[in-house]
Write a structure and sequence with these properties.
82 residues, alpha+beta, 2 helices, 3 strands, START_lipid-bd_dom, lipid binding
Length: 82
């Protein structure tokens, strides 16, 4: 993807509100715990990693039922020094 910067890609991946907007399968998508919270990480996280705990309820076509996912997302940003 030459026309998308790494930072733009990261921002889209981290933006739950935007995901709710474009993904019609999302029933519910919310942070249970966010890296933007007070201490900026889950217990045990070190070395600049950011962690989020996310609850996602997804709609599937009939005859399948909705699915609920709880997942931990861990991310970081490395900058290139020239």
């Amino acid at each position: 993807m030459d026309d998308v910067s790494a930072l733009s890609f990261l921002e889209v991946q981290l933006n739950l509100a935007y995901r709710r907007y474009w993904d019609e399968r999302v029933v519910s998508l919310d942070y249970l715990y966010s890296a933007t919270d007070e201490d900026n990480s889950l217990p045990g996280d070190t070395d600049g990693f950011k962690s989020d705990l996310i609850r996602w309820v997804a709609r599937f076509p009939f005859p399948m039922a909705q699915r609920e996912y709880i997942y931990a997302r861990r991310w970081w940003l490395e900058t290139v020094q020239e």
